[in-house]
Amino acid sequence: MAFAASGDEALLGKLKARLLESAETGNALAKEMTLPLVKGIDAFASEAYDEAVTYLEPVFPQLARIGG
Predict the structure, then answer these.
(1) DSSP string, 1-68
(2) Greater model confidence, 62 or 19
């Protein structure tokens, strides 16, 4: 959230790239939870609220998987 809120697109891009790589190599948590969550937070910070909902709504019921 800090990268998105501060507008640090470079670090946010690196984070998303690493999560995508992890998801593509079989990490289910990255694919199903973390990557969509980060994409949703990024969209929200960019004021793309409809896009944010698209990413965030499906993961909300699963937030306990990552502590909350």
Answers:
(1) -HHHHHT-HHHHHHHHHHHHHHHHTT-HHIIIIIHHHHHHHHHHHTT-HHHHHHHHTTTGGGGGGGT-
(2) 19
